[in-house]
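ok trying this again, last paste got cut off
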Amino acid sequence: QTISQPYIVARMTEALLSQGYPDKVLEVGTGCGYQTAVLAQLVGEVYSVERIKYLSEKARKRLNFFVLDNVQCHYSDGNWGWVEHAPYQGIIVTAAPNHVPEALLEQLMIGGCLVIPVGTPNQQKLLKIIRTRTYYKQHTLDDVNFVPLREGLS
């Protein structure tokens, strides 16, 4: 897999924190754990899912080494989110689906913020979505280029 440029990690984190500092965040796409470690320093709890078993295990060991006690990692399909710990005040997705997964919208609490790249390769937009009581307010932040958000486990 790839690791996001530090600028993109910072941009996504800034967008997520624009609504305040959430107590509970879901990260979809643990990867090496870089974004996870950044979030762990800024929010109460981070729940991170990764669909590639090898990456999930390596990231878990790396995050434990750095004694990030407010992080829980889970080997699962990120399209499903992590319903057992929902709702989340923030959700950050580090791979790009063609459309926003419904499960992630449902797991976002009212007033919560979802930061997600969406689109096909070479035509992706970074979106910030705020859930209100009656709808989802969407803002386009930047043109981006992420790996696709794939379904299933690997």
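PB: full thing came through this time. DSSP finds four helices and seven strands in the chain.
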